[in-house]
Amino acid sequence: MKLLFVLILLLGATLPVMGATRPIKIEDLFRFKRLSDPQISPDGKAIACVVADVSLENNTSSSSIWLIPSGGGEPRRLTNTTKKDRHPRWSPDGKYILFDSTRSGDSQVWAIGVDGGEAQQLTGLSTEASTAIWSPDGKYIAFVSVVYPEFSEKPFKESNELNKKKIDEIAKNPVKAKVFTKLFYRHWDSYVEDKRQHLFIMPWNEGKGGEPRDVTPGDRDAYPTSSTFSVGDDFTFSPDSKYLLYTATPERDEAWSTNFEICRVPITGGKVETLTSANPAADGSPRFSPDGTRLAYRAQKRAGFEADRWGLMVVDVDAGGAFKGKPQEMAPDWDRSVNDFVWENAHTLYLTAEDNGGKPIFSIDLNKGKVQQVFTGGVNGSLSVAGKARLLAFTRATMSSPPEVHVARLPAGKAVNVSQANTELLQQLDLPRPESVKVKVDASTQMQMWILYPPGFDPKKRWPLVYLVHGGPQGAWEDGWSYRWNPEVWAAQGYVVAMPNPRGSTGFGQQFTDEISGDWGGKCFDDLMHGMDYLETQPFIDTRRMAAAGASFGGYMMNWFQGNTTRFKTLITHCGVYNFESMYATTEELWFDEWEHGGPPWGPNRKSYEKHSPHRLADKFKTPMLIIHNDLDFRVPVSEGHQLFTTLQRRGIPSKFINFPDEGHWVSKPRNSEYWHQEVFAWLKKYVKPGGK
Q1: Which of 392, 309, 381 is nearest to 349 (CA)?
Q2: How many domains are there within the chain?
Q3: DSSP H or E segment with residue 647
Q4: Measured between alpha carbons, how far is 487 from 451 in angstroms, rounded to an integer?
Q5: What is the DSSP letter of 688?
Q6: Which of 157, 95, 156, 147 is nearest to 120 (CA)?
Q7: Is a pLDDT exceeding 50 seen at residue 254?
Q8: Which residues of 178-325 form beta strands (DSSP E)?
Q9: Alpha carbon distance 285, 233 (integer Å)
Q10: Is 93 a member of any domain?
Q11: Nearest C-alpha neighbor of 563 from the set 647, 621, 609
């Protein structure tokens, strides 16, 4: 007893009192350590991981590389910077780690010995460098740099100087005019101009890097320009270290084509070979088996459809990565879409896929063609394997816990949290677990929906409801964590939060996903209303206090709700589509709208642009609305928000427009994010009082 008392005195300042938890606050979102990109060492003994810290006070974030013992033990900080270190990659011999860093002012490639010492800067490109990987023989490094293609055929020193000269001239020129001669001149939140993402090779010799060489010169990207077609590293060395295989953007019509290809080029430069030209849809993410005899990659079948099912293709290859035979799809009847994947050995892969509101880890045995679920619970990702040690490292998150690094012994051992970076903070918080329910939406279809109750929930009382609609539309509410739309923070304000997965959602079969295309305001809207019917029958829901909110497609649905239902006391729309025709003419990824509507607005299916466009129903708008839309949102341009706000104001409907001139489709800067939450919850409280009654 005396020893216990001493321990309490020693630890009492840091350990929370058991059971003395509190609801999560907005500022807690910025207190969490943000872990990502775990990479297990070749011998399986340690995991390199990115750990990011956010300073709300300074409105900054920084990230460093940490080493976490895979068998448990105290993590060790390997790099230390107030800037951003990221993308750690182990050398084949396990002695060094490559990483990207902005510590010298812009992004360059660095290396550090695992045993410590100072990090060494390996690149100094005027066009920056990132995403570095090692060759299997450890003699070369490949990385990405965004260059002006007109200089890319020249020797490195000359091209680097010409790139720098052009960059400096643009910066110094008082005329800031931008000139465009083709589409895809901007993407997500930045102007692309005429730059291209190229792959570079540089030699490595025990701590030193040599002169880089651009091996993909010309006017084409050698790296995906859209995150939709990217998963992990999108290029790799061939088993003999003599070639690079990579995911290239469409050679033509890239603003409305999804024909991403896997290409091959010698590391010395030379002729580029397209390996997947037989498939008119997207191919990407090449990965070689450990013995170098097989290549796996992801592929879609329907050209132009970014949300098509990703299948896993495997093909026999030679040491240089050339195909020996025809690629075959593994488990073609498995109705899930492959996301992240890694090889364990010559015939076994592990992969993640969305499944019924979660993202488990599956294994696939190529000899049997069988897919088996092996690790469940929450959202798993960023797979990394140490084959000889038979260990798998990955991140796992749930709706009530942010990503932490887990390790499991293969083939199906227990997943253990080895990072524990946020355990102390989590022990202080009351974060209820969500409930999953199924709602019948038609004779043969059910919709999965998450319900999250507020801290201190008393089912005998009646509580206000917030109905959150996810983005996409081909997306899903999963049992995972978010720093942008975090349901726990919404519930902590004193609301029951419901998160439905209607038609169009992913992880419920491809047909379920397909059923929203060309029908945004149809079956999906009906499903959402059936979800509301279910919620209104629950005795703890106060039907006089209900609100709805959403972003991107969810923002569109808020705009559609305006003209189609009066169930909600208020609506909150973030970066949502208001007018389909103006959206098409101002967005950048045209393949998205053209698939969703069956062509451009002047095509044969113009009625699709008209039928479900919220702007047509302005005469029916009645509900008070908060609008958030940002100047750097090039996916759903800010004009959509301006049109909606003008309409609401002209009609005399209570409305407020919050505009962030320095944000894109999301609100990412710490102080902006804090302000976003404060404004959203203040508006919500004004129209829907929180708490049980």
Answers
A1: 392
A2: 1
A3: helix 639-650
A4: 10
A5: S
A6: 95
A7: yes
A8: 186-187, 190-191, 196-205, 208-209, 213-214, 235-237, 243-248, 261-266, 273-274, 283-288, 294-299, 311-316
A9: 7
A10: no
A11: 621
Can you tell me which residue has the tokens 């039928």? 611
Q: How far apart are CA 151 and CA 158, in angstroms?
A: 8
Rounded distance, CA 476 to CA 362, Å? 19
- Tell the residue number behind the tokens 């524990």, with chain if given: 420
The burial class, CB within 10 Å (0-12 / 13-18 / 19+), for 438 is: exposed
What one-character DSSP code corresponds to residue 306? Answer: T
**Up-side HSE of residue 152: CA atoms within 13 Å toward CB?**
25
pLDDT in tens, 181-217: 999 899 989 998 889 999 999 999 877 889 999 999 9
The structure tokens 């775990």 sit at: 38
Contacts of 444 (CB under 8 A, 6+ apart): none
Question: What CATH number has the domain bearing residue 676?
Answer: 3.40.50.1820
Question: What domain range is 590 assigned to?
Answer: 454-687
Please, how many CA atoms are within 13 Å of residue 200, restricted to the half-sphere of its CB?
33
pTM: 0.95
Q: What percentage of the chain has pLDDT greater than the value 90? A: 93
Residue pair 319/238 in contact by the 8 Å Cβ criterion: yes
Q: Looking at residues 351-363, what average pLDDT do you find?
A: 98
Identify whether 558 is part of a domain: yes
Residue with tokens 């879409």: 337
Is 50 exceeded by the pLDDT of residue 54? yes
- What value, to the nearest 5°, has the Cα angle with vertex 79 and ends 74 and 83? 130
Q: Would you say residue 9 has pLDDT above 90?
A: no
Identify whether 494 is part of a domain.
Answer: yes
Per the structure block, which two tokens stand in for 603?
Answer: 């095509």
Distances (CA, A) of 666 to 30, 189, 227, 379: 16, 9, 14, 21
Q: Any idea which residues carry the catalytic annotation?
A: 552, 633, 665
Q: Is there a contact between 98 and 131 (Cβ–Cβ < 8 Å)?
A: no
Cα→Cα distances 647→308, 508, 554, Å:
35, 37, 19
Contact 634, 664 (CB under 8 A): yes
Residue 615 covered by a domain: yes
